[in-house]
Description:
By secondary structure, the chain is an alpha+beta fold. The chain has a single domain, classed as Immunoglobulins (Immunoglobulin-like, Sandwich). It is built from 2 helices and 9 strands; from the N terminus they run αβββββββαββ. The longest helix is centred in the N-terminal third of the chain and has 17 residues, at 2-18.
Amino acid sequence: MKFKQSIILLLVFVAVGCAPLLPSFETPTVTLSSFRVLPGSSIVPTFEIGLHVINPNRTALKLQGLSYNVELEGFRVLSGVSNQLPVIEAYGEGDVLLQASPDLFSTISLFTNLLNQPRDKFTFSLEALLDIGGLMPKIRVQKEGMLSLAGAKD
């Protein structure tokens, strides 16, 4: 029994002794900066999703990976992952640009829904998960809103 207590006591001392070595970490701010259709000759459009990252920490933010989903009118039309991400310097800002093509079946379901219920405004939601590696928690970004086609008409 003393052996178990000694091991537990040793682990507590190690954890307390290492605590000052761990830097304090503030969660970076991530916002949606752009969402647009890229010009192209393909029948299937490609979208560009821009995220702006602000790093309030004294160490650089080395993004390991990112996953994302975009829904229009409740239909998941875009999803993907990326590991080609910039380093956001200490007390710095940076942009992440993602390119995505739509999910064919969800897009067909969306168009069917829009044919049955035409509208000029669409609800959208974006969910992104940024992995900064190590023992740090992943950063979740959620954005919801309305897109309007009223300004797109000629």
